[in-house]
Amino acid sequence: MAVDGDLGRPSRAFNLETAARPNILALKPYSDYKDDGTNVLLDANENAYGPALALDSKGKLDDREDGAELNLKGLNRYPDPHQHELKDLICKLRNDPNRVSEPISPSNLFVGVGSDEAIDALIRCFCVPGTDKLLTCPPTYGMYAVSAQTNDVEVVHVPLIPNLAGANSQSDPDTADFRLDVDGIYHKLSQDPSIKLIYLTSPGNPTASLLSQRSILNLLEHPTYNGIICVDEAYIDFSPPSASLAAFVTQYPNLVVMQTLSKAFGLAGIRLGAAFASPEVAQLLNNMKAPYNVSEPTSQIATRALQPDGPHLQRMHEHRQAIVAQRTRLIEELPKIPGIGRLRGGFAANFLLVEVLNQPKGKPDSAVALRVYERLAEHREVVVRFRGKEHGCEGCLRVTVGTKTEVTKFLTELRGVLQQIYDGAVSNGTPKGDPVREEQRESEENAVLA
């Protein structure tokens, strides 16, 4: 027992390296490009056209548009823990009147802090730490692995099947680039009953490919798999209307579908995501969440953005249309630039996966792609994402679709950077320079989450 003279002296027994859990000590913090306000940011798949809100010239909510004001007087009170009105609006947005199946209701919903809260909650709900496993299909979103490591859950990988040769079919699921290895997943599920959770992304990140609905439904009907299949649909609003699987949660009790307001709605700053599930699974997730996980300002802004036929929802449709138009422009213009290879994956998101070649009409080269990324960011004020070391992504950059002005600058600077590299900084497909530094930078880029 300490005496008065010993108070204020730290315990000699405390050692952070042995006190903290080993899997937590091994975590790397989320990193992102730090912008000084001068760059064209085409790296984080944000909505370059801004939030889907009717704003005045000063960027404030234009209350004249819908006659409602944000109520800040109640911020001394805790928010509604159930979010009934918000859930009802999400259901109205996602229910398809042409489907004959049972409609989605608020009992099918969990809402939380982005999709990341649902990702973590599903792992905690279905995977016993140190015992159970989850399955992912690389290349994919990096937070699945981060949440798995945080919860001491092993990750099993069944990579997507890339189409490394020939034309990329956008319509045939049997030849599509980055398609599901259904046989491989089936085998893993049959051989390993400790797999309790599968994360699939559709459209994929970084692939922008839609996964075959038929393939996912086949996996949901696996004869022995006793676990959840979660389909992450963060970018679904940039896809054809029939692409979402959200309505199928009323038919498949082992299906969870995640969506977010961060992308098409341009509301990444309010951090709101939704998980559609059977009422039983949704109830489990709601039982686990913090009592007041969705803040009052987040709830109010999302509620306004989702009002049917309102000015804010109309703004979302306008922004989406503009993004799709610029996506089409990039699809048409990028292949015209010497040194740009195939557009990999699909065209179902607000970004594209672009091959960079070692020389005009050459081969995909990740070292050259890394140099292009660096020069764009450091000398041309354009930031994209290097993805050259992910499965099936040799020589690839992921490029977010920006505004018309941003796309123009990107295309111009990309052409110029490639010309500079080919004129003097590339020899036999490898950029000249310090190989140790190149390896270090490559490692740093691959540490940045999708």
Task: Provide a concise account of the structure shown.
The chain is of the alpha/beta class and 450 residues long. Helix content is 34%, strand content 13%.
Describe this structure in words.
- Helix 5 packs across helix 6 (143-150) and helix 12 packs across helix 13 (404-425).
- The chain has 450 residues and is an alpha/beta fold.
- A seven-stranded mixed β-sheet has the order 2-8-7-6-5-3-4, sandwiched between helices. It has a four-stranded antiparallel β-sheet with strand order 9-10-13-12, with helices on one face.
- A hairpin with a 6-residue loop joins strand 9 (340-344) and strand 10.
- It has helices at residues 16-19, 22-25, 63-66, 84-94, 114-126, 143-150, 182-191, 213-220, 279-288, 296-305, 311-333, 366-379, 404-425, 435-447, and strands spanning 40-41, 109-112, 133-136, 154-157, 195-201, 228-232, 255-260, 273-276, 340-344, 351-356, 382-383, 385-386, 396-400, 426-427, 430-431.
Keywords:
450 residues; alpha/beta; four-stranded antiparallel beta sheet; 14 helices; 34% helix; 13% strand; disordered C terminus
Helix content: 25-40%
What's the total helix number?
Answer: 14
Strand order of the largest sheet: 2-8-7-6-5-3-4
Based on CA atoms alone, the radius of gyration comes out at 23 Å
Instruction: Identify low-pLDDT runs.
Output: 426-435, 445-450
Q: How far apart are the first and last residues' alpha carbons, in Å? A: 51 Å
